[in-house]
Design a protein that fits this description.
mainly alpha, Na+/H+ antiporter like fold, elongated, sodium:proton antiporter activity, Cation/H_exchanger_TM
Length: 686
């Protein structure tokens, strides 16, 4: 039970880290998780975590690398193949050599082979750690693709180098010739093994599908087991399990599948399942780092033979050395080809070079490597300075995360400042609509196909309207403000006309009351007081309180509505009465707008007149078609509700990432509240 409670606490810590990050987005999730791991370590628990190094590699590294390979952007990976290989192979081995000799010179108590092992553990970068940094960091796409491709490849090269260094340290035997030959054999063998096992897996899946075994759960289980099986088989064959899972992941990215219903469903399940697995594994890695820190620091602080300030100095020197080597390598790898081509007049993009250099954050791979260092050598003696090596690796992870968290947002602020420009605002509005359309297209089924297409067409229409907008956003904002004020005036016109129709006996009181509720909702949306999540909760609480305090009135209203709905003819008559009321109000509004129209306000009033025309046309088109449209309207409302929630989440994510300003966020939310009222205002009327 102790293990169960411990795992439960660590999973809870992962959940808490994301909740905390929601309130302090400028602090990266890995740093929060490390801090929570330290808290878990100091709790008075009956269980103490002691990891098996080999288990740590297969449990964390295999699925992480497999997933990275599977979700890689194939085109970007191919386009950036030269710089990626320069970073993933050249920079890794240069880092191992330079940092290895530097560590051995700086700390003589660490043997050269062990120093190479530490350098190899520090060589790979962690794209997940970069992605987990504050949402305010907005790296250019090219740099993002470069970092992802580098992390995918240098994990393999760094870990293979690490394994050779550990083997040399444990056995005491090392030959540069034998190591080179073994490296080629192990590397090529690992790639071939990963490709071969993946091919066998594809053939096996094809065979079981021919047998009629289309169960998504079974196929999902095979997907989850794939990286572990490939890694273990490769290690049993004495080739690189790391390169095997990388090759398998990339081969999965190139897999071409027939888009049948079963495949679509499996893709949806697979995406959700893997996101949870990777989320948990990455969180556990940093939580585990935090749990190990107190013991590691205590051992080093008391028994390492060096002073505490020396250890801090070692960590800082190695961290800045890694950044310096990375900066020089990136700068020279860009400059030398330019000089060879005779393009010495152009200058390197220093900002991009610094961004790429500081984005080389160490994370899960470095920690997994460090913790997998064996406790004893082949002769049974303790591994020299194991605790100090792990302490230095942990310190470098922390320093790289802190430096990236502090500096990258400042460098990226240049991009962020453009978020208020007219073109950027237009681009963000298009991006929101485009994301909703993409998400809805993934949710199309035979039952909701027609309704989903209608909603998607609405969003495409919004995109066309945005694209036609004049770039002079200052004038557009003035128009928007004038239109908003006029819309509020239109609501007042409709209220007054509704009261007039009731007094003249041309509209029923019950229909007018429901229409007033709709106009009140419209007024709240226009004034920025639309239904947020907290507002919806307050409304539900208010209704619940009214039901508890005035049960008789609530019951009477409910019974009255049930009676009306049971009487189909009466229900349709009331609904048609409301529709007639809306049509009469729309006609009055149109006449008032036309009377107001002159040469100075055409840009403000014409869009409202056209909008009013569309409402009138829709009302006339829907007349007498209630029965035939009921099921369609319900399906459409379901899709619209889903689309609104997607749009709300996209706006929130863009705001948290610093890609849109607070003012633009408020404007987008206010527009969304208005759309929501348009979509679901009929629920207030029915």
């Amino acid at each position: 039970m102790e293990i169960f409670y411990y795992v439960l606490i660590m999973l809870a810590a992962i959940l808490i880290s994301n909740v905390v990050n929601r309130f302090i987005p400028f602090v990266s999730i890995p740093l929060i998780q490390i801090g929570l791991g330290v808290i878990v370590a100091v709790l008075p628990l009956a269980f103490e975590l002691k990891l098996n190094p080999e288990l740590f590699l297969v449990l964390f590294i295999a699925p992480l690398l497999f997933n990275d390979g599977k979700r890689t952007d194939r085109q970007a990976l191919w386009n950036l193949r030269a710089p990626i290989l320069m970073l993933a192979l050249g920079l890794v081995f240069v880092t191992v050599l330079v940092i290895g000799y530097f560590v051995n010179w700086m700390i003589p108590t660490i043997p050269l082979a062990a120093a190479f092992a530490l350098a190899a553990a520090l060589a790979p970068t962690d794209a997940v750690a970069v992605g987990s940094l504050s949402g305010r960091i907005d790296l250019p796409k090219k740099i993002t693709h470069l970092l992802e491709g580098e992390a995918l490849m240098n994990d393999a090269s760094g870990l293979v180098a690490f394994q050779f260094a550990i083997a040399a340290m444990v056995t005491g035997v090392f030959s540069i010739w034998n190591a080179s030959v073994s490296f080629i054999v192990i590397a090529v063998g690992g790639i071939i093994c990963g490709l071969a096992l993946t091919f066998i897996k594809f053939r096996f899946l094809k065979w079981i599908r021919k047998l009629g075994m289309e169960d998504v759960t079974l196929h999902m289980l095979i997907q989850i087991l794939t990286p572990f099986v490939i890694y273990l088989v490769a290690e049993e064959l004495h080739v690189s399990g790391i390169l095997a899972v990388v090759a398998a992941g990339i081969m999965h990215a190139f897999e071409k599948r027939k888009m049948d219903p079963m495949t679509v469903k499996l893709n949806v399940v697979s995406q959700g399942t893997w996101s949870v697995i990777i989320f948990v594994l990455n969180g556990l890695v940093f939580i585990i780092l935090g749990t190990q820190l107190p013991d590691i620091i205590q051992v080093v602080w008391q028994n390492s033979g060096v002073s505490n300030w020396q250890v801090v100095g070692y960590v800082l020197l190695i961290t800045f050395s890694l950044i310096g080597i990375r900066f020089l390598w990136i700068h020279l790898s860009w400059l030398i080809p330019q000089l060879m081509k005779g393009k010495d007049s152009s200058k390197p993009n220093m900002r991009a070079t610094v961004l790429t250099s500081l984005s080389g954050v160490r994370g899960a791979v470095t920690l997994a490597s460090a913790l997998s260092i064996p406790f004893v050598l082949a002769d049974g003696s303790p591994f020299p300075q194991r605790s100090l090596i792990i302490c230095i690796a942990s310190g470098v992870i922390l320093c790289s995360l802190i430096i990236a968290t502090a500096i990258l947002p400042i460098l990226a602020r240049k991009d962020e400042s453009k978020s208020d420009s007219p073109r950027a605002e237009k681009s963000m509005k298009l991006s929101v609509c485009r994301h909703v359309v993409e998400q809805l297209s993934k949710e199309i089924t035979s039952e909701n196909k027609v309704a989903t297409q209608v909603v998607m067409d609405d969003y495409r229409g919004r995109m066309r309207a945005i694209q036609k907008e004049d770039i002079d956003m200052s004038r557009q904002r003035e128009i928007d403000k004038e239109q908003q004020a006029l819309r509020l005036q239109i609501v007042q016109w409709e209220k007054e006309n509704t009261d007039l129709l009731v007094s003249q006996g041309e509209a029923g009181k019950q229909a007018a009351s429901r229409y007033h509720n709709y106009l009140d909702s419209m007024e709240k949306a226009l004034s920025g007081r639309g239904k947020s999540r907290s507002g919806l909760m307050r409304m539900m609480f208010k209704r619940l309180t009214r039901q508890v305090l005035h049960p008789k009135q609530w019951q009477k209203a409910k019974v009255r509505m049930d009676e009306i709905k049971q009487n189909k003819e009466q229900y349709e008559a009331m609904f048609q009465e409301i529709r007639d009321l809306r049509e009469k109000n729309a006609s009055v509004v149109k006449a008032k707008l036309v009377d107001m129209l002159d040469e100075t306000n055409q840009a403000v009033i014409w869009p409202l007149i056209n909008e009013n025309k569309r409402i009138l046309e829709q009302l006339k088109q829907d007349r007498g078609s209630i029965k035939s449209r009921e099921s369609f309207e319900q399906a459409k409302k379901d899709v619209q509700l889903q689309a609104i929630q997607i749009e709300r989440d996209v706006i929130q994510n863009l705001f948290e990432q610093g890609k849109i300003s607070r003012d633009l966020t408020r404007e987008l939310r206010q527009n969304l509240n208005l759309y929501e009222t348009y979509y679901f205002g009929s629920e207030e009327l029915a």
